[in-house]
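Reopening: Cytochrome b5 heme-binding domain-containing protein still failing for me.
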Amino acid sequence: MAESKRYISQQDLKSHNKLGDLWISIQNKVYDVSEWSKHHPGGDLPLLILAGQDVTDAFVAYHPPSSWLHLDNFFTGYYLKDNSVSEVSKDYRKLVAEFSRMGFFEAKGRRVMYTLCFLAMLFVSSVYGVLCSDSTWVHLFSGGLMGFFWIQCGWLGHDSGHYPVMKNRRFIRFMQLLVGNCLSGLSIAWWKREHNAHHIACNSLDFDPDIQSIPLFAVSSRLFYSLKSQFYDRVMNFDSVARFLVSYQHWTFYPLACFARVNLLAQSLLLLLSSKKKVAKREQELWGMVVFWIWYPLLVSCLPNWGERVMFVVASFSVTGIQQVQFALNHFSSSFYVGPPCANDWFKKQTEGTLNIMNSAWMDWFYGGLNFQIEHHLFPRLPRYHLRRISPLVMELCKKHSLPYNSASFWMANAMVIGNLHAVALQARDFSKPIPKNLVWEAVTTHG
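Support: Ran it again with your exact input. Result attached.
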């Protein structure tokens, strides 16, 4: 006689959401991923953020069909008894299955080889301009070219972090270390940790590190309440210094974007040198960073004087600021919330927190495909060259379920971001209101 199924309630599942006690549900089967969180390829943060919930949509979005074969290793024997699936989730899962059947998630390796050849051309051209020319203008152009090279490295690293861009995984790892750590100075491990948290908790003020820029920027007045960053594990103090800086953030946004790369370099080093954070293959990552901090200063030192050296560095960093602005356009003017994401609202939260940039197809390469940010957030494993193709289907699904599908031109998106920063800046300037000390009421009323 077959043994009857054992069930637990959503409330029972919700109690298993602490480090060392992490349970999740996928298609109503309950899994204990407490130990697996230490070995999870995507890091422990996604599991920590979503623990205690049914995470079927997030699992479908991030994992290939082969991952389903390993789930039984973590099955607790329990089933979720009171879980309901929304109509939008049903349609979303059907769409994922259809894309998988059509082979959309299978990347074509030759595209990566073309990209690597293009990157090699950019890098060699920049270095050649420094070493083989006496012209100040050529040196300035070479600095800008280096920045453009870093942007394209970023797009390739981004792609390889979301899906296997080639069949040979060892080559993918080598390529990540090369274009990320060695040539760009950015740790791939740091990027994966930060970027996964961003995707899972898109536009959560206390869980999404991409919008946690206090004291320099505040995308929402809710950040005036000194929220605790769950990613950085520290309070984002909104003090008098932060109030002053935020009051002028609509003026400082573009100048600071030119040097945002400094923060990325620092964050990479802080993670790799930290003894508190677990980093897979830390030695490889560190050696890659050493390579960068040897060749880049050495190249700069080959310039004839300090004026041109500073000019080269400023040019290379400023050009990469374009990429930082692109990231901001996708999220800084969208909807924000406080608290962890609700896995049952996966589709809704991803569409509410993102903005597409309208442009001609020939410019998709410039954006790294992230001009289709909504599609990318809903289908992160999908190669960028399919995003425009599936856009009408996503738009239709959003319309069917009365969900936002926000898009704007590049210039309008800039205006929207500056407009939001200006609105928050005006609120920060209201010195008649004291700096808030807590977020109890705000967190209760805005929790998403």
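The longest helix spans residues 136-162. If you still see a failure, please send the error message rather than a screenshot.
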